[in-house]
Design a protein that fits this description.
about 70 residues, about 75% helix
């Protein structure tokens, strides 16, 4: 899971950002569920990357709403 560049997020439409946010949240829920069940994560940094991407999208959404 690579970090999504801020420039790419800004170029997305509002609908695309919302769709991507839902996808990332679903994936994060799946990864957290796997970790809670005691399974070894396939990629240990994936949860952190997902959280960072979600925060990035939410921050840009707030900027767009505010201005």
């Amino acid at each position: 899971m690579a970090l999504i560049r801020t420039e790419d997020i800004r170029n997305m439409s509002v609908e695309e950002r919302g769709k991507k946010l839902r996808e990332l949240r679903d994936e994060l829920m799946h990864e957290r569920g796997a970790a809670a069940m005691g399974g070894a994560p396939t990629n240990p940094g994936k949860i952190r990357a997902l959280r960072s991407n979600i925060a990035r999208i939410m921050t840009i959404q707030r900027e767009v709403e505010k201005y």
